[in-house]
Give the backbone structure.
Amino acid sequence: MKSAKRSQKEAARPRAQRHAARVRPAIASPWKLHKSGTLQILQVAPLRKLPWLVHGFSTRVGGVSDLNEEKVLNLSFMEWDQRENVEENRRRLQKALKANDSKLTAMHQIHSDVIRRFETPPSGRCKGDASVTNEPGLLLGVQTADCVPILLVDPKKRAVAAIHAGWRGTLGRIAEKTVGRMRQEFASKPQDLLAAIGPSIGPCCYEVAAEFVSKFAAQFADAADYFDEPRSGEEPNPLQWLNMAPPGHQPPPKNVHLDLRKANRSQLLAAGLRAQNIFVSDLCTGCCTNLFFSYRREGTQSGRMLSLVAVRQ
């Protein structure tokens, strides 16, 4: 009887919560999950070796925001959350990273290829999806809840970048362009750069329309490698001649799964980074909603994580 009752309770829970409860993410080296008080932060071991660098990828764990009877570390000003909660969550994250004195310079993200250089904190709302700096004390941040966060570090020039790469930014080559911007602004050499591609929605959960294959194939020679099936929906359909249905009455083509992490890693390689200097997290935000926020799984009641990087003061 007890096992039957547990099954009934399990079935009554939201699907995303049931899915998350089954997933126990394994943190693969060189990625490490560090605990600071109630917070859990992902970091990359080679980047931790740089004493002048601040970096980290937040999780949903350990904040003061109330979400479906759970205390979470929401780091964006959402309608469902109170502003003072978000500000307290940000303070906790900066304290955990020992970056209390740094100024957070998170942008208003617009799913673009716009890259900003910051020498001082922006005075107003600044739109864009990537930022670069070599100024100590400026904490660059990107907010995500499925999109790909990327941190770039130049150990020789002591310059850093933070990138928000959704499918539009990826299609616009924002990762590759940010490497170019670092070359332009700081004389960075791509072979010296270190890149951390943080947790994002994986190909297991990121289902998109078949037309995305054509969109990406028009930009990238290796686009077929980003999808589980390299079909665009434009292929001839012999079945329409068998069932005599006119072309306009055919069912839409089956969706495909897109690997945004692989697409962005490919861009970084094309920009000149060394394969051994690119660290990709294989944690899926859609699978691991006990550790991360996922807009696809949770919808408007999802929070946002922050991926942060800075030159320490």
Observations:
- Residues 14-201+277-311 form a domain with the CNF1/YfiH-like putative cysteine hydrolases fold (CATH 3.60.140.10).
- Confidence is low (pLDDT under 50) at residues 1-22.
